[in-house]
Design brief:
homodimer; alpha/beta; Rossmann fold; six-stranded parallel sheet; globular
Chain lengths: 187, 187
């Protein structure tokens, strides 16, 4: 199971997770204990862990057009150097784990992720984090398109509502990604 | 001249510029005064400036295969947080200028550069920095491939030898990039 396998934890930053943050995903906070379990399993196995995070420049110049107004109105989010940009405390990367910055939905778009995974000989990706319709899904679709075997830990990923989560899990399962809950995954 | 035009200054970091650094480019230091002149002209014109820099992770996991041994033998270079990774003092970005990180030769490979330039409405790129056969050339070739008009400030870019510089300028000119010296550019 663990050889050639890496974990991607997506966007578990304070601005996306903590209640009251401008871009909080409602379901994200309750996934933290389950993500922690999955993360600990990878740490025990000494398998590669990628903490994939979003960053935007303070002036909003690199924010998607569709949320640029919102970014400016709210004073911005996931700006490097702010607390909101940091990974939630209990999931902080350990030395030897990778923090990888993306600017868009997919962890593969305009990032070094694919060539780092290839260098490590990774063929299987276990994905958790937030949120289902955007970054989790886009990353998994690109992973499958690039030839990786995908595993989604369904209750360690989140959306604004359970309905959105379920609709996305269905679509993700339909492209061949193994979808399992944390307890099943850890067994 | 200045509307729709951005400046790219490539890899003018201490580890590539200062004599004695493990990956110093011999010709780089003497270009600093000319790059400064070009940079000041863009600042006067309030035209966008991108400081394109290289970064490698401390463990070397994202270094090109061909220089990974060298990276480890020398103790690494352009690692974030080190002085060597910083842009040389006189060229430090001002607020409002962009620092953009790349992991490979081209400023366009796996970076947000193209979509930031499109957002800004940029159609013409003025390029200087180091070094000719690798990052300067790869960035200009990709710029042309993507449809940008290219301008190379020939004596504000550098190589290990003048012969390497000249051979590259010839090839770059042959794909339609305007190649001019600093004094001509500033006129």
């Amino acid at each position: 199971m663990w050889s050639h396998t890496a974990l991607l934890i997506i966007d578990m930053q304070n601005d996306f997770v903590l209640p009251g943050a401008p871009v909080c995903v409602d379901g994200a906070l309750e996934t933290v204990p389950r993500i922690t379990k999955v993360l600990n399993r990878f740490r025990q196995a000494k398998a590669p862990v990628f903490h994939v995070v979003r960053e935007y420049r303070e002036d909003g110049s690199d924010v998607e057009a569709n949320r640029q107004d919102f970014f400016r109105k709210t004073g911005g989010f996931v700006v490097p150097g702010t607390t909101g940009c940091e990974i939630v405390a209990v999931l902080k990367p350990l030395p030897g784990e990778y923090r990888l910055v993306k600017n868009r939905y997919s962890g593969f778009m305009n990032t070094e992720l694919d060539f780092m995974l290839r260098r490590l000989g990774i063929t299987r990706l276990v994905v958790c984090g937030t949120q289902y319709p955007n970054c989790v899904r886009a990353t998994l679709f690109d992973a499958v398109a690039l030839g990786y075997e995908g595993v989604l830990v369904t209750d360690a990923a989140s959306a604004q509502t359970p309905e959105i989560a379920q609709a996305n899990i269905l679509d993700i399962q339909n492209i061949g990604v193994t979808c399992v809950e944390t307890d099943v995954f850890l067994r």
